[in-house]
Design a protein that fits this description.
The complex is a heterodimer. By secondary structure, chain A is of the alpha/beta class. Chain A has 12 helices and 11 strands. Chain A folds into 2 domains: 298 residues, Alkaline Phosphatase, subunit A; 35 residues. The N and C termini of chain B lie close together (9 Å). The chains are: A alpha/beta, B mainly alpha. Chain A: InterPro entries: DUF1501. Chain A: This is DUF1501 domain-containing protein.
Chain lengths: 383, 460
């Protein structure tokens, strides 16, 4: 019989092993740190991301979908990573990825819309906070020249607020010719606001280069593009990417595999392109909530509560799963249908970014996620 | 800016080549109340909300039947078709709104439509709204834009699109007939959903600082139970309204309610209507609405004296909207010579289309352009609506996209004498540098692209 407490203990021990050696590298300025936040919109199924294959209920609840994990378990553990996550799996082996299972924000209803509002704003309830937690994070980082960029046509809620943010996305709009751009630039020279915005936009576009991209649909190219905007002079230190299409109400097996493969390709290309900067990088992948434990009548899953989050990057104290595993028996489930959340997503986010940027974890928690009482999770980042 | 260019650009939707410069800009604005058409042909021909709800509810039925019969593939196909229709209807509704904006001789009144539509926002980010978001503006906002705040509030929040957007349609009184019956049969207790009641107080009337408590929200939500939409299983025996809303008394929480210190003993839907009437004329509502209007017309830092005047007008006129518009037009703060605002994407895109004599774009391309610019109609990220402060729109990539769109529109246009057009649109407010660079342009097309990208065009 599987013991939930034993498992938690073993994962904590596995994590602390990497803390044994004192760090010899010279102190780095905060601006050398990179943070990429990827929001999976549509409620990515955490039980598909990181399947609890050793839980006795899993096979029965997940039917044919459980076959996807045959022989792919994480070494010696309760969980198996979905096989579409090849690059992520490799990072886990290199102790550069960790997973948080049975995690959820404070939101307990099942509207994507509200769930995303909670996770982006950082409020305890939907619409209680008007700006975004990534924007407030920027206010906590002392460096003045830090740049944040949404890889998106407009600035998502998580990045909205008092701190100035940039946005960039390849577009299908035919680029204006160079001569026109130069002349527009001359007109804006006498206008401080437009002049600055135009210069900033041109700088970002120059950094992106001629991507030949018309949109953000090719995941691998998006990964490369994100990296190209986060390395070199004037690069963005904080970036957000929105990953859409995780709402798998029917035919989940194919849909999830496709989605996961895409995200994995994005992450793989991003890691490759970041090169040495990867060592200073933290990637957080999170979603608004999870999905029902039992499959529905159309081989999909409906809106649930507990899900999984991933932390990746050279900065991550990886190679472990953080989970106070609640179990999948009927009585263990939230409202009899969802994975019971035993970790606060906000505590993971606050703990991770505080560790990464060298901030006081309590201050980070208070600022980024006001009205949340959970303690920030520590030990997520190599120190 | 000159008074004419302020009337055209700050209050209106931008000048057109054929527009006569008004002798009296204030009068030109106020006369629009006579010219405004709440139901122009392009908009009257759009599907109404009842049809849209039926297709939305159709998805629920198809899904259930497919699940029960095991014919999942066929169900998926039907759902795809329903969604395609909803998407098509959305594109057509956006195009109709755009056409009306470009053609309108009452642009100030149209601007007020957008203002209120955004104040009472519904959003197609909730997919189910796609087919009916346009209908919400066309049915609930347009007819009341020159009426009273109370009537618009009722129409906007008691509309099926709003009921679906903010989850009202399933909200059930815990002691309602239906809940009691369900409990007796051992079924799940049907419950209250506070979403709409909260947003009415927070966003639509009193404002976040308007002095209400969580208990007021819950009480108001209880009073609102019973409001649902026509066509759901629950509403089978409900009384239906022409707009597709329905009243199901058996979902209503019985008893009297106390909201903001006042007790309401009315029966049925009269109770929520009475509460709506109270909050519609509340001093906090006057302040909230006045502040938003002043921010819209006088700048991101709304001048307090103007807010105070509008508040007074709101209270004295009992929320008469034309009285408020008149007070705005008569406020010196709204006529300051310097631009007060960075145009929103919608305002800017309509202004450049009016400047170039209309649009030769098809509907889908028009919607794509709004998407690229970042403000598709009825698509805000939250019930708060699209932001109305310059910093939200004056973003680096957004600006460069505008220049690219300007180049596209200029290429489609056949305007010839660009220096004269620039002078016509902005009169003496045209910057020397804009005038100079337009005169040096290597072609009329490039000159027009420069005009459409100019600081004068970006702001109002």
């Amino acid at each position: 019989m599987l013991s939930r407490r034993n498992f938690v203990l073993s994962s904590i021990l596995a994590g602390s092993a990497s803390l044994a050696l004192p760090r010899l590298a010279v102190a780095q300025t905060a601006t050398s740190k990179r943070l990429l936040f990827i929001l999976q919109r549509g409620a990515a199924d955490g039980l598909a991301t990181l399947a609890p294959v050793a839980d006795p209920q899993f096979n029965a609840l997940r039917g044919a979908l459980a076959e996807d994990y045959d022989g792919v378990g994480l070494s010696g553990g309760l969980f198996a990573l979905h096989p579409s996550y090849e690059n992520v799996g490799a990072l886990y082996s290199q102790k550069q990825a960790l997973f948080v299972q049975a995690v959820a924000s404070s939101y307990r209803e099942r509207s994507h819309f509200e769930g995303q509002n909670v996770i982006e704003s950082g409020g305890a309830t939907a619409y209680s906070v008007r700006d975004g937690w990534l924007n407030r994070l920027l206010g906590l980082i002392p460096e003045q020249d830090i740049r944040a960029l949404a890889l998106s046509p407009s600035i998502p809620l998580a990045m909205q607020g008092a701190q100035s943010m940039s946005s960039y996305a390849p577009t299908a709009l035919p680029g204006a010719d160079k001569d026109l751009m130069a002349r527009v630039g001359r007109i804006y020279e006498s206008d401080p606001e437009l002049g600055a915005l135009f210069a900033e936009a041109q700088k970002t576009r120059a950094m992106a280069g001629d991507t030949q991209m018309r949109n953000l649909r090719d995941a691998e190219k998006v990964g490369g593009l994100a990296a190209s905007l986060m390395i070199g002079a004037g690069a963005a230190s904080v970036m957000m990417i929105e990953s859409n299409g995780w709402d798998s109400h029917a035919g989940q097996r194919g849909q999830f595999s496709r989605q996961a493969r895409q995200l994995d390709a994005l992450l793989g290309a991003y890691q490759q392109s970041m090169a040495a900067e990867w060592n200073d990088t933290l990637v957080i992948v999170a979603t608004e909530f999870g999905r029902t434990v039992k499959l529905n009548g159309t081989n999909g899953s409906d809106h649930g509560t507990g899900s999984a989050a991933m932390l990746l990057g050279g900065a991550v104290a990886g190679g472990k799963v953080i989970a106070d595993w609640p179990g999948l028996r009927q009585n263990d489930l939230f409202e009899g249908r969802d994975l019971n959340p035993t970790n606060a997503l906000e505590a993971v986010l606050a703990g991770a970014v505080a560790g990464h940027f060298g901030l006081d974890p309590e201050l980070a928690m208070r600022t980024l996620f006001p009205a949340r009482s959970a303690s920030p999770v520590e030990g997520l980042i190599r120190t | 800016m000159t008074p004419i260019s302020i009337a055209w650009n700050r209050f209106g939707l931008g000048g057109r080549p054929q527009d006569q410069q008004p002798d009296n800009p204030e009068r030109w604005l106020l006369d629009q109340f006579e010219r405004y058409d709440p139901r122009p042909a392009a908009i009257a021909s759009q599907p109404n909300s009842t049809e849209a709800i039926q297709s939305y509810l159709g998805i629920r039925t198809i899904r259930r039947m497919a699940r029960e019969s095991g014919a999942e593939d066929r169900g998926q196909q039907q759902i795809r078709e329903v969604r395609q229709t909803a998407r098509r209807n959305y594109v057509q509704a956006v195009a109709a709104r755009g056409a009306q904006a470009v053609e309108s001789d009452a642009p100030f009144a149209e601007r007020m439509v957008y203002f209120w539509s955004n104040h009472f926002a519904v959003s197609v980010q909730k997919n189910q709204l796609r087919g009916m978001a346009g209908a919400h503006e066309f049915e609930a906002i347009r007819p009341h834009v020159l009426g009273s705040f109370r009537d618009m509030l009722r129409a906007a929040v008691l509309h099926p699109a709003m009921f679906i957007y903010l989850d009202q349609f399933q909200s059930t009184g815990p002691n309602s007939q239906i809940a009691v019956r369900r409990r007796r049969r051992g079924r799940n207790e049907a419950g209250l959903n506070e979403n709409l009641a909260r947003e009415i107080l927070e966003l639509h009337t009193l404002g976040a600082q308007g002095g209400y408590t969580q208990a007021d929200v819950t009480e108001f939500a209880r009073a609102m139970t019973g409001w649902t939409v026509d066509g759901t299983a629950r509403a089978r025996r409900a009384a239906t309204l022409p707009n597709g809303s329905a009243w199901a008394g058996y979902m209503h929480e019985p008893g009297s309610r106390t909201v903001l210190g006042q007790t309401y003993t009315q029966d049925g839907h009269e109770q929520s209507l009475a509460i709506l009437d109270t909050v519609a004329k509340h001093p906090s509502t006057a302040k909230h609405v006045a502040t938003k209007l002043v921010r819209h017309f006088a700048g991101d830092e709304p001048p307090q004296p103007m807010i105070a005047r509008l508040e007074r007008t709101f209270l004295e006129s009992n929320g008469d909207l034309p009285s408020l518009y008149r007070a705005i037009v008569e406020s010196p703060e709204a006529w300051t010579e310097q631009p007060v605002k960075f145009r929103t994407p919608w305002e800017w895109s309509i202004a450049i289309m009016r400047a170039t004599g209309g649009s030769r774009m098809n509907a889908r391309r028009f919607v794509r352009m709004q998407q690229e610019l970042g403000q598709v109609p009825w698509g805000p990220p939250s019930p708060q609506g699209y932001p109305d402060t310059s910093s939200n729109w004056a973003a680096p990539d957004a600006l460069i996209r505008r220049v690219e769109v300007a180049a596209q529109i200029a290429a489609l246009s056949r305007e010839g004498d660009i220096p004269s057009l620039a002078r016509h649109l902005f009169q003496d407010g045209l910057n020397d540098s804009t005038a100079t660079w337009i005169s040096r342009a290597e072609s009329p097309e490039q000159g027009l692209a420069l005009l459409l990208s100019s600081p004068e065009m970006m702001r109002r």
